[in-house]
Specification:
homodimer; about 600 residues; alpha+beta; Threonyl-tRNA Synthetase, Chain A, domain 2; five-stranded antiparallel β-sheet; 28 strands
């Protein structure tokens, strides 16, 4: 039968509990909810659960499923339920039932709460499976054979009801899918994700370092990570140069007055770093680059001839995230971004938005991103209080955004009532190489900056016009997220143009080191990033090290090469090596780098 | 006679006062000290001093000098002096004398205090010149004709004794030099300095903007300023790449623990931005890049094979300067610098220091700086409390620094007892194009970082060695100071390689705009920074505008050029234009840019 996956997973939790009950008759049960990809159950058997226990439980579950018991629902009075679990010695369940009876709620986490129907606390539902009976709202599959496939994969300690003063229970995690293929696919994805984990690769490839003494969420880019960053920034400067952007550099801090004008204060204050009181006012680290760019826009009178003005910056912003939530590059406190703000007239919005989309897709092509779609978030005329009151601008701009998406023939969805307060936006949605869907970036239209900052221009007739529209865009996400993404996307094997070390020169023996170094010098002078392995390791070991460091090109240098013969080139990940003249190798490499095709 | 210049200037102040006394018999006098380049006197004539008054006073001074009175010194009892100035109605002088008598000091500024000898308050000295008598310590020139040349050049309001509640006096400023030539030279320098003023040019050339709403001392680099910055940064990356530096990127903030370890806290606390208390500790904006670099050095075990490690960064640091002291780019609160730290063994100090010196002089050559010398600041064995207690390291390193300076055959001076607490340093002293001497940058040796941060490496025998020496260096000063310097140095006319706009394309008429734009596109695609003046101005006006913006190359595009003929090129500051084929122009320009020879 085609059950919702939650039915299967929750049923598997019951079957697991039944198997545990058979193996450990004295076992006490906490809660056993569905989680992403499977389920867990918190149990107390008076000792830690071992790997052997897990095997036995998995086997016991199979035995029960083979007997194919039904999941039998029973509605009983709460007092009868209390009596039953008391007799069974299930003290944890008893506690939940008593809470439910006296307080009308179990006041526990969302996961636990699903076992109890808050609408009906006079009676509760039980489910019986084999010899196991559980307090449970259901629903379940009809018979155990309908569960599908499952696999117990992890045990962790967990305090009862999440409180450190409570007894520690054992949380047994299981995966559960409808088919073997789905489980296998998920497991392969997990292995792939672990292999590509940006924290693991970030350390192995010496890309970045986060240090307790500097602070959580503050990334130190090591030489190799800084080299990749520089290439991404160079790409941005080059592409945006072609698209008519002007680059600026702005301070990382500003006075309170700026953020009061932009509206970040007081509304966004909790997400900003704490105030710094100086002798001439209160300063904050910036949470956005836009206010600084608006100041640059308006620092001199602007003529219609200058529009659109496109100000770009690899700018850094600061967010006061809670320290406990900080993790690797995905959640940090200081974020750089290839940010830009476009200042244009209303009749230029369409063109400018289209150019932003083209630029974005130009980036995607270079990085080989293919699975993307767009999400157009619109206002809602039914929720006028949520949106800046410019109905004509909303309708006009939403229409032109839609027109562009249609003209470009890209997949998109429209969502009502999801726009920002100050204008519609288009999110770029992307499916990662390991199947995770995420928002890569956002193009945001802004009707309100013109009012807040008094942005204006002088029109053809010499008159002041305050109808300046701002487009916020950062197609490469934040640099930190994007680097995490790139590391995962390439599994650390950056293409030639992007790699921190592009060419590893590997002398076969000591007598080839001198030639290796002169070759490296020649290649470096051409702007290539080269390293020489002049260690005393064997050449086999040198190759393995270079493979591990995922250097895109290796030049093995022995007697023939040092004697002026052709070069021996190994390409990362390819088993064979090839011979190629030095001139040809240089020409090919420079071309691949310039065109960013490898 | 060859008097010290202060004698002349102070005597000129007395002669000015004597002339004022003749012209305005009721004038009351405040103080009249020597200042840089001249002197002033604060006077009260009951109304503002006009330009006509200044001329009359200048003339009156000449008349007195022609009579050549002597400067007659007289020592009198303080009570006699009080009586004398009371009779003369000199209420301000009287106040000073009474203060001196009752408090033993005039408690006024250093400038005023020079009039009175604090060692001898029982009697005071007077000087008489013509009919003017002044309370004054002297000394003066013997006769008025020995003053030299002078020129009254400025009047400003000044409160008596600098207090706003006191009467406002008129401060008359005069220049004074021994010879006409010296005065002329100084005046020419002032005119030149005004023409080259980085604040004036920074605005005219749209290089940077400082905005009250963002905050004083926080520079917004406008597109043109950011372009120059990028070129300087590219130069640094290129040069330091050649010298084996690795670039890193570090956060602008860190936890208190880092700065306690480095020793910046608590000693440097007042100069740092205020603390930011977060949920996991206290954070500060960094005042130096070194602690972050030390963390990168020690983030992994280092082998002797890796040394020297050279970590470079265009890093930004923050200084909590008082808002009243902030001015243009010369005193700011956020400073970027082409910073680097070199980690090496003791026996590598000499080589590394020499390489730093070569790199520094390499920069100077590119920027055409010629008038420099070096200042070696050493410790003093007589002040052991001021210096880290490593006598061998002091002697060894001072010797190798000296050896390098001698080997390089550069001018240098040695100064005892001026080193930093943690090591000797070499300052690079430079005389600017308008004759001002300043410290361009510093190379600082550091014996203490190894101890504070536990810096170490594994030596040839596999043993840990903690003798890591650090060299701090930032040859291009801070970016802000350096930009102020470059603007002044080039009077805003940046060389081709550095200019924000390298080539201005100036169409003669509307019908040439299309060709101008396609030419600009072709040049831009080669990486050149080009702008087209497609305004409706006459070509003469366009040339004048481009000259004013100091664009290094102008291409005037008319019928012949648009028809495929040679290009007409004007070079900034050169009166003649030349004809040159497009291919030749491109080749020449690219060569000049790559070699940074224009």
């Amino acid at each position: 039968m085609d059950y919702p996956i939650e039915f299967r997973r929750h049923s598997a939790a019951h079957v697991m509990a039944a198997a545990i009950k058979q193996l450990f008759p004295e076992a006490k049960f906490g809660v056993g909810p569905v989680v992403e990809h499977g389920f867990y159950y918190d149990i107390d058997i008076g000792r830690p659960v071992t790997a052997e226990d897990l095997k036995a439980i998995q086997k016991g579950m199979q035995k029960i499923v083979n007997q194919n018991p039904a999941f039998v629902r029973e509605e009983v009075d709460i007092d009868d339920a209390i009596k039953l679990f008391d007799e069974l010695g299930q003290t944890y369940k008893l506690e939940l039932l008593n809470d439910l009876k006296t307080k009308g709620t179990t006041k526990v986490s969302v996961e636990e709460a699903q076992d109890i129907d808050p609408q009906n606390v006079g009676s509760v539902t039980l489910y019986r499976t084999a010899e196991f009976v559980d307090l449970c709202r259901g629903p379940h599959v009809t018979e155990a054979k309908d569960i599908g496939v499952w696999k117990l994969h992890k045990v962790a300690g967990a305090y009862w009801r999440g409180k450190e003063t409570n007894p520690q229970m054992q949380r047994i995690y299981g995966l559960c899918f409808a088919t073997k293929e789905e489980l296998a696919e998920y497991e392969a994805m997990v292995i792939e994700a672990e292999k590509r984990d940006h924290r693991k690769l970030g350390q192995e490839l010496e890309l970045f370092h986060i240090d307790e003494m500097v602070g959580k969420g503050l990334v130190l880019w090591l030489p190799k990570g800084a080299a990749v960053r520089q290439q991404v920034e160079n790409l941005a400067m080059e592409m945006e140069g072609e698209y008519g952007y002007e680059r600026v550099v702005t301070p990382h801090i500003a006075k309170e007055e700026l953020f009061l004008t932009s509206g970040h204060l007081p509304y966004y204050k909790d997400d900003m770093y704490p105030a710094m009181v100086m002798d001439d006012g209160t300063y904050y680290m910036k949470a956005m680059n836009c206010p600084h760019h608006h100041i640059i826009y308006r620092h001199k009178p602007r003529s219609y001839r200058e529009l659109p003005v496109r100000l770009a910056e690899y700018g850094t912003v600061y967010r006061n995230e809670r320290s406990g939530t900080l993790a690797g590059l995905l959640r940090v406190r200081a974020l750089a971004m290839n940010d830009a703000h476009i200042y244009c007239r209303k009749d230029q919005i369409k063109d400018e938005f289209k150019r932003v989309m083209e630029l974005t897709m130009g980036y995607f092509k270079i990085f080989g991103l293919e699975n993307f779609w767009f999400r157009l978030s619109k206002w809602s005329p039914d929720h006028l209080d949520k949106y800046v009151n410019e109905p004509d601008n909303w309708e006009y701009s939403q229409n032109v955004l839609r027109e562009v998406l249609i003209e470009m023939d890209v997949p998109f969805k429209e969502i009502d009532n999801e726009a920002a307060f100050y204008g519609p936006k288009v999110d770029v949605m992307f499916k990662s190489v390991i199947g995770r869907e995420e928002t890569m970036s956002t193009v945001q239209l802004d009707f309100i900056a013109k009012t807040r900052f008094g942005l204006e221009y002088t029109d053809e007739k010499g008159e002041k016009n305050g109808e300046i529209f701002v487009i916020h865009r950062a197609p490469l996400s934040t640099h930190e997220r994007f680097m995490a993404f790139l590391i995962e996307h390439y599994a650390g094997a950056f293409p030639l143009w992007l790699a921190p070390v592009q060419i590893a020169v590997l002398p076969v023996a000591d007598r080839h080191v001198e030639f290796a170094q002169s070759l490296a010098k020649e290649l470096s002078a051409l702007g290539l990033r080269v390293s020489v392995d002049d260690s005393t390791e064997s050449v086999g070991k040198k190759i393995r090290n270079a493979e591990k460091q995922k250097y895109p090109r290796m030049l093995v240098v022995g007697d023939r090469e040092a004697g002026g013969g052709a070069l021996t080139v190994r390409i990362h990940g390819e088993p064979d090596q090839q011979e190629i003249s030095k001139e040809e190798f240089i020409k090919k490499s420079l071309h691949e780098i310039k065109s960013r095709t490898a």
